[in-house]
């Protein structure tokens, strides 16, 4: 490999590293209700935003989306955006069984993605209640949200917020 090609490859690598470091270290938005509401899709309601120290320093966003046709139904979610070291990655916590609650920090899988610089989102899939309370199966809106729509609308909203929060074009 000739010297000029090596120098150009080194420059490209350094520019890429600088871009990753910059986006991983500085958020484009602030961790406030007003700021996050401005980033959210129009059908997304931001209920609370808080700077949180555990499990790592992050901006915790709690909100919901109202689904329709059938509906209305409320799909709750939580999004955690690491303060430092964001790697441009997004992790969606899957809810097995009947769900019924938004995952807490203690339910983030082993090897906590937040520690690895991931933005982490989770949802109650549009159903609140005990694990064995299958009454949601008689409600067409709650059933549809639990089957697929709740996870989808949550992923769309939280990915949009994540990209805008960090000023990223893609995840």
Fill in the keyword field for this structure.
single chain, 5-stranded mixed beta sheet, globular, 171 residues, alpha+beta
Descriptive account of the structure:
- This protein has one domain (27-166).
- Helices cover 33% and strands 23% of the residues.
- The chain has 3 helices and 5 strands.
- The protein has helices spanning 3-25, 33-39, 140-166, and strands at 44-52, 58-67, 73-82, 89-92, 118-123.
- It has a 5-stranded mixed beta sheet.
- A hairpin with a 5-residue loop joins β2 and β3 (73-82).
- The longest helix has 27 residues, at 140-166.
Q: Distance N terminus to C terminus?
A: 33 Å
Inertia-based shape: globular
Total strand segments: 5
Amount of beta strand: 15-25%
Q: Structural class from helices and strands?
A: alpha+beta
Q: How confident is the prediction overall: mean pLDDT?
A: 82
How many separate helices?
3
Report low-confidence residues grouped into runs of 5 or more: 14-25
The level of helicity is 25-40%
Please, what is the oligomeric state? Answer: single chain
In short:
The chain is of the alpha+beta class.
Set out the fold topology.
Layout: H1 3-25, H2 33-39, E1 44-52, E2 58-67, E3 73-82, E4 89-92, E5 118-123, H3 140-166
């Amino acid at each position: 490999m000739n010297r000029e090609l090596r120098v150009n490859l080194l420059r490209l690598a350094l520019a890429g590293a600088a871009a990753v470091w910059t986006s991983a270290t500085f958020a484009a938005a602030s961790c406030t209700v007003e700021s996050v509401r401005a980033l959210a899709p129009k059908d997304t309601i931001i209920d609370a935003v808080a700077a949180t120290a555990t499990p790592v320093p992050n901006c915790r966003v709690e909100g919901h989306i109202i689904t329709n046709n059938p509906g209305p139904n409320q799909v709750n979610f939580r999004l955690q955006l690491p303060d430092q070291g964001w790697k441009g990655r997004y992790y969606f916590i899957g809810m097995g069984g009947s769900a019924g609650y938004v995952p807490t920090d203690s339910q983030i899988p082993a090897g906590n993605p937040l520690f690895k610089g991931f933005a982490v989102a989770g949802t109650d899939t549009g159903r609140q209640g005990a694990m064995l309370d299958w009454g949601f199966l008689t409600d067409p809106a709650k059933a549809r949200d639990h089957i697929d729509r709740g996870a989808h609308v949550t992923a769309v909203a939280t990915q949009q917020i994540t990209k805008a929060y960090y000023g990223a074009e893609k995840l």
